[in-house]
# Entry
Amino acid sequence: DADVTQTPRNRITKTGKRIMLECSQTKGHDRMYWYRQDPGLGLRLIYYSFDVKDINKGEISDGYSVSRQAQAKFSLSLESAIPNQTALYFCATSRANTGELFFGEGSRLTVL
Amino acid sequence: SQELEQSPQSLIVQEGKNLTINCTSSKTLYGLYWYKQKYGEGLIFLMMLQKGGEEKSHEKITAKLDEKKQQSSLHITASQPSHAGIYLCGADYTGANSKLTFGKGITLSVRP
# Structure
């Protein structure tokens, strides 16, 4: 089983719908991250959390919200999806004080 | 403007050839991380460099960080089809080894 699991792996939805992407990890790491990847733009940080009570905005947090339900779970929500949120979304984890990230396999979201 | 530039944008090499790709920062790095991504999959950590002039190797891949800590190169010796993928560099600009800023990535293709 994967150490960092994302669900769903693929999702097609319509503009205005609420979407939740879920991430769970078995690595025991305190730090969790949500990135999105777009062709030509690379990987950009949406939100990150250094522990259950700590949530921080990344460089592109507008239109997104997150919930850290437990050390092992970090969910990303799109309250009202729009087409330019079509992207490949990655969850990642790390130990404290290291930039070595462990990534999930990604969730491909298409907003029509 | 992009803080982290990767070059070339893409590269096609014949199997067995050596190659070098680069990652250049507009400001001094505290740490530089190299990751590899297979198409549509998550990123896999390769190496981390922190000291000016540092060089690390793993199998046929060697990464270097220049003395000024603003540029890193990744060299692959005797390339193989298994080396194909997207190579991303991630910069730690805070010194806290926390969230990384990623470049846009370099797509490497290796012809058999």
